[in-house]
Description:
Layout: H1 2-31, H2 36-43, H3 53-62, E1 72-73, E2 76-77, H4 79-91, H5 99-106, E3 107-110, E4 120-123, E5 135-141, E6 144-149, E7 153-158, H6 162-167, E8 168-174
Antiparallel strand pairs: 1-2, 3-8, 4-5, 4-8, 5-6, 6-7
Helix pairs in contact: 2-3
Amino acid sequence: MKTRKHIYSAVLLFGLLLLCASCGTRRQLAAGPDSPSELSRRLGMRITKKDNLLLYTTVSRWMGTPYRFGGLSRRGIDCSGFTSIIYGEVYGKRLAASSADMLKYNCKKVRHSRLREGDLVFFRTDGGNRKIPNHVGIYLKNNKFVHASTSRGVMVSNLSEPYYLRTWITGGRVK
């Protein structure tokens, strides 16, 4: 009798815990600070449950971080540092330290028309050797990418902007 009562209590408690945990998760996803609607607002693009919410949540927490050459913190970060940190947190992969080395050692080149979420995008912004990038970002979707801009810090930009069309080198799929 006593054993049956303990089993019944344990099953009931487990069921209640499972119910509470699942309700809390749904509630947070629907209306929490990292919900698709809140991420859409922060990033200025439509995010749905089908998107990689870890990527968009991680990116959104860095939005507005100022640019600092060689920086690796929320006090200031550069494009390759930002890309490396996001890639490590979201995909668990370690990337080279510079945009040129990321392309050379970590990526397989990908055409603009074949970009997928998480691919890297490379640019030459200073007029130097057009084959060697000096700027990198992470492709999101719908022609948008996130990067650490020297003028505005971490932000989402559109690959169709004339500046990025002019400075584009290639996309890169991390191996």
